[in-house]
Design brief:
This protein is mainly β and 532 residues long. The protein has 2 helices and 39 strands.
Length: 532
Amino acid sequence: MRIGKLIFLLGCTASLAAQVTDKQLLEAPGANWLHYNGSYDSRRFSTLAQINTRNVNELAAKWVFHVPGAGGLETVPIVVDGVMYVTQPNEVYALDARSGRKIWEFHHVGPSADRGPNRGVGIYGDKVFFTTPDAVLIALNASTGNEIWEVKLAEPEEGYWSPAAPLIVKGKVIVGVAPGDRGLNGILDAYDPVTGKRLWRWSPIPKPGEPGNETWAGDSWKHAGEDTWLTQSYDPELNLLIWGIGNPSPDFNGDVRKGDNLYTECVVALDPDTGTMKWYFQFTPHDVMDWDAVEIPVLIDAPYEGKMRKLLAQADRNGFYYVLDRTNGKFLHGSMFVHQLNWATGLTPEGRPIRVPGVEPSLLGTKVCPSSLGATNWMSPSYDPQTGLFYVVSIEGCGIATKSTEQFRPGGFQYRATGDVLIHDDSWKVYVRALDMPTGKLIWEQERIGNDFWGGGVMSTAGGLLFSGEWNGQFVAMDAKTGKILWHFNTGQHINAQPITYSVDGEEYVSLAAGGDVFSFGLFEPGKTAAK
C-alpha cells in the first residue's frame, strides 16, 4: 500500500458523515455536484437559479484555494453536503465548500504528473475514488482521507495511466485508462466499491474470432490504441453505459491497419452489469488524424421529427455534430459545426463520412481541417432544456499533416507515425457555439477573444446562464439564449477545466479550477440580490 502525506484538520464545520446513495446519484445537479459531468445524462445543466441573468453582475470571488505545486489543473470539483473534493495527479483535497478551508489531503506515492492531468474523483457511500498516473484506482474514506484499498488497473511500465474521474453506476466503480498514442489496447473496468474486486473488463479491441476483428488488417489489432480516458454517460432507464472510444494506433499512418478499425472512434453502449456491448456507432472509420471520439455523449429525451425519442447528441472531434437514437445507436442526423472542414463533404444516410480523396496525412504534408486537436476536444458541452440548445466549445483551425513509417516499440513509447503542424494564422479561432439540438443549426456564437488554444468547457443553469472558462484566464457568464456576455472575471491563469455550481446553506456558488487554483464565486449579497 502506497500512502504519502495525510493531513486531517479537525473542527471543520462542513459535514463529513454523509453517505452518497444510488438515489442521489440519479438526481440532477442542485445543491450537490456528484458527477464529473454533473449527472448521468451529462447535460451539465444545474437546476439552481439564485444566480441568474438579473444579478450575475454582482458575482464575486468568495474564496480561492491554491493546490500546492499545481499548474494546468483539469479537475472538476465534486461537492456533497458542503464538502468539495478536488484533485491533481496523485493528490486529493477535501475542502469546506463555503470557505475553501482544507479539511484533509491525501498523497499517493507514484510517478510524476508528466503523464497528464487528473480530472477528479467519484464518490459513493462513504468513499472517494480516484485514479493515478501509475494506473492505480484508490478508495479513500471520505471523512478522513485514509486509504481503504487500491488496485492496479494496468501496468504503468507498458505506458498505461488513468486521468479520468471514476463513474459510479449501480454500485460499481467504472474507470478507463489512457495508454495514449502508444499502441496499447484500451480497457474499461468495473470494480466493487467495498473490496476493490474487479467485476468485469471490456476491451474495445476485438480479438480474432470476435465480431469486428475483420476490420483490422493482419495483426494490427495487437497494437491498436482505443483509449477510454474521459468520463462518459449512463442511461438508468435503458440500463446502458454509454462510452466514447479513442483513436487507433499508429495515429497518422493507417497503411499498416487497413479497414474501419472497430471499435476506435465509436460510441458504444454496454450493459453495466456484465460489460457486454449492446450497440455501437462509429464516427470516423479508419481515422488517420487522432480524432478521439471521447467527446461527451449527452443524453436527451426530446421530440424529434414529431415524435418523442431517446436521443444521444455529440459534437465530435472530426467536426460533425451527431444525433443518434440511443436505444439502438441508429444514426438520425449529422451536420458540420465548424466551417473549416475539408476532409469530408458530408455524411451518408447511415452516418458514414463522405471523404475527400487525398485529404489525409502524406509524406510531404497535407492541409487537413480540423487539425489533430479537433473541432472540439475534452472540453465538456452542455444542454439546456429551457432553451433547447446544445453548447459546445468549437475550434476553427487546420494543420499540415504528415505520415512516416514507424515500428511499434514496447515500454510506453509513442506510436504515432508523425503528426501535424498547426496553422496558427488569422483563421485559427475558438468559439462557444449554441446549436439547435435536433438539427445542429447554429443559433449563436461567442468568440473567445485572444484564445489560441482550447480553454475549458461550459455549464448551463436554470438561472438562464452559460458559464465558460477561457484559455486566456477569463471566466465568463453569458445569456444562455443569446450568448451575450453578462459578467467576466480574470483569474490570471490558463483555464483548462469545466465549471460547476452548488449550494450550501441556501447560497449558490460557481466554482472552477484555473492554473493551480480552485476558485469559488457567489453573489455579493445573496439574500438581497436573489429577490430581484
